[in-house]
Specification:
With about 325 residues, this protein is α+β, with helices and mostly antiparallel strands. The chain has five helices and 18 strands. It folds into two domains: about 140 residues, Diaminopimelate Epimerase, Chain A, domain 1 (Roll), CATH 3.10.310.10; about 160 residues, Diaminopimelate Epimerase, Chain A, domain 1 (Roll), CATH 3.10.310.10. It is globular and about 50 Å long.
Length: about 325
Amino acid sequence: MSGPLTVIDMHTGGEPLRIVTGGYPDLPKGTILEKRAYVRDNLDHLRKILMFEPRGHADQYGALLVEPDLPGADLAVLFMHNEGYSTMCGHAIIALGRYAVDQRLVAPDGDRATVNIECPCGLVRAEVTMRDGKAAEVSFESVPSFLFARDKSLTLGDYGKIAFDIAYGGAFYVLADARQFGLKFGRDPVAAFIDAADALTRAAQAAVPLSHPDAGDLAFLYGTILTDGRDAWSDQPTRNVCVFADRQVDRSPTGSGVTARLAAMHARGQIAIGQARIFESIIGSRFSGSVASLTRAGPHAAITAHVSGRAFYSGKSEFSVEDGDPLAEGFLVR
């Protein structure tokens, strides 16, 4: 490290976002996926410094703004977490939409601002609602999302036979009803959901090969979303928890996870275009989501999803590494 790492911290629905504002070296030119590979292969020690203890924690999440490559993009972002680098993050898009307006990276037009954000999965458009001259609610329209594998099942040790789908919402997720594991939201500890979701993720990774029509780098299983089973459209909220990366728990309803759920719901005839649904997280925070349009992703019938939420600032920091610190690059304690 040649200098301090500076960050602005936000959260969306309780899920943290640490936005890097200084301290990273310039990256080579290239596509967003090439930049992601370069950071992963050459600068991963900086991710660990920012995400791991003593400066972060096992469930920290981050965003590194990089030079856009796609025409029309206002900014580009690499997402980071306790295991590596994601391809899409809805809670981060909501936070970055507000951040871009507040930092005057994008100027509002009346009571709205449009922020085009290049992600590893593609270009995502965020719409920021202005209230009293300040950025408030943020919505985004997802990349094409689809149900990849339907009605799969695996036998998982003491849990028995578990049915699940796999859907893509900018990242691939296993979707499963938590009741199959004997779990109920509001009754059972989060640790029980983590164990169940992690077991299913690992089994599905081994059993179900993934592919994506745009790039091989997108074809990896990010995690598992356990739901309350209330997939058919209703005016009542549906609750879920996303366990991703290395047993990391999303405090928000998970923006890309909501998108994946909407893609699966629509493929099953459980929700129509324009029907709004409320998605609730493990801590009770909420996103609104709906199917925005029908499209295709290679051979897959797909949708785009419209997801809305709010983000808030929680602080700013400057981090350094002192010479001789044996724990300089961080550590995790579970």
